[in-house]
Amino acid sequence: MGTIGLAVIGAGYWGPNLVRNAQATPGLRLRYLCDLDADRAKRVLGEYSTVAVSDSLDEVLADPSVDAVAIATPAATHLPVAMAALEAGKHVLVEKPLAATYAEGRQLVEAADKRGLTLMLDHTYCYTPAVAYLRDLLRGGGIGSVQYLDSVRINLGLVQPDVDVLWDLAPHDLSIFLSILPEGVQPLAVAAHGSDPIGAGRACVAHLTIELTGGAMAHVHVNWLSPTKVRTMIIGGSQRTVVWDDLNPAQRIGIYDRGVDRTEAADIGAEKRAQTMISYRTGDMVAPALPEKEALRAVMAEFHSSITESRPPLTDGRSGLQVLSILEAASASLAQGGAFLPVLGAELSNGQVREGVNA
Q1: Structure pTM?
Q2: What is the distance in angstroms between the CA of the first residue and the CA of the last residue of the chain?
Q3: CB atoms < 10 A from the CB of 31, how many?
Q4: Which residues, 6 or more positions from 262, have their beta carbon under 8 angstroms from its beta carbon?
Q5: DSSP string covering 157-222, please?
Q6: 220-257 tens-digit pLDDT
Q7: Which helix (H) or strand (E) holds 107?
């Protein structure tokens, strides 16, 4: 299969971005733009486009020239739309989140596995040069063992009518964490705290804390009400610390050889044990040069490659399921006043989704 016939489902906020990048990706041929509002779809494509417009999902899925679909519809519709596509034998790329609930997401993962089809999440940040660099750095041991991750994603943003700020913004940070953490480091438990100072009926400011394998901790601050936009992540390691500022194109990543060292009591003489065993390390900072690339173009290229090479994509259905498991635990924690709650497992075990401790 060289050229993949693609249909984009949904012509709202994100659909036009999928259309533009699909048309610019070698190996993909955009066949349809499907939306309940056909006129809106026509406006997205322009007057002279040869791409077909349809307001019928059934019509699109029945066309044998369509090998795959990219779904950009509300999260509540992801299960029926994606399931219909999988049952029609189509590969699926779906906008985050994978589904409205963990249980629904699991249905999609199992349906794709059963049919041998690609199910991929549009976790766009995972395809940026910065995250690719962080993934190689952390998994290659470039900062030593991971001690903590601290992410801030705040802005004066659109208060969503159907989800709180955790479900709206935190999936970006969670997908990044899962993409860059070394093998064997997994989320174990989650605690969430939030507030609704404007009376929106849902949390508009939230803090998420995640316990990780080995005692490390990750923290996410998301906020719709900040007058300034901040997109930063700090990753502390036993050897180096990384600071990622996504809004600073001149220096997105800085790697600092600065931190705190601790000497074990057995390694120092008895006369010094009464003194502090903590020392501060001050070294150089390195700012790697990173290319500027559109991440969504890389998403489309990975979707095409995973289909033609019959391999799981970088952000496969299970990665989306892991994000849902953390979000559901966070929502439960929020409702219980911020208690730590275990995270459902979404690991691969003999080709099947394996339940977690509180399944």
Answers
A1: 0.87
A2: 39
A3: 23
A4: 277, 278, 279
A5: ----SSS-HHHHHHHHHHHHHHHHSPTT--EEEEEEEEE-TT--SS-SEEEEEEEEGGG-EEEEEE
A6: 999 999 999 999 999 999 999 999 999 999 999 999 98
A7: helix 102-115
